[in-house]
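Q: I have 325 residues here and want to know how they pack in 3D. Can you give me a structure?
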Amino acid sequence: MRKTRVVEENEFLRPYKRILTDIVASESALPRALLIANQLYLALDGAGYELRIAATEEKLHRIHIDERETERKDRKYGRYQSGQIWSPDRPTVFQIGAVPIGISITEMTERVTMQYLNGSYHRTDSKIIRSAKAWQLTHSWTHLQDVPSGRFKIVAYSPKSGVEWSLSRQDTEQVSLESMIPELVEELKATVGKILALMTAADEAAEQRERERKAEWERYLRREDKRKSAEALLESQKQLAQIIEQWMKVMAVEQFFREAERRLAEVEAKDRPHLDTRLALARKMVGDADPFQFLASWIAPEERYRSHYDSAPEAVPMKPEVAGD
């Protein structure tokens, strides 16, 4: 826990290691945090519950834990009042039958007035501020900040996704947290039925969401299949219209040469050789265009896209004027 990133004064430890038991504490309160954890873990072990750090494949998660001792509308943790508190990557859990329960020990924060002195902020009730000379505080200022209080809370919760349940106990002026541990363990035993019912409801809700997700995905696939089938049909119609247009042009050229050859027989003999040569050159320039070559290149709708479902889009009649465009 003490192998930590650099932290400002009055902030929580931020260990480099992220696979640790769920204990959040400041440097000064760490010894007590470990004593509370030891007592809690022994009580759970004595009740027959073995603690562990959850494995990745269990898909258990740690809930967000509010570190504030008193619920407030705002949060002012850290020097710039937006600091992040360290938390382990995986929850610390134990099992009661089929019910996993996460457990966290967190030092709470209290809101205090901090005063600036010599480049740092200190609690106004701290020794360094109380012993400061008046002239030292001439150009000083104060602000409110949430700082570790030395008091702790234990939070038990469901680490299962979709199950919103938690139970907490915290230090008070009258009762220490350590004395609440036996009662907390007994209450956890009594609450298992409720948690199990919430887990069952969450599983059923998750299954329903999964069914709805699959149904929506199936609807999407059908829409896409229909769209692609319709698109393939339109592309085939468009290509066919172009082929018909090309065919008609080829047939018009062919008809021209046939008519020219027929009329050539009626031309006077002296002019016929010259015209026959000109006709041969013209046919050579046009080339021998086989209209069936165009048809051979046509791609039918089912060749473009084959539907995965029985339904197929109906063909839209081509406009007669398309061929003549």
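Q: Anything worth noting?
A: Residues 320-325 have pLDDT under 50 and may be disordered. The radius of gyration is 42 Å.
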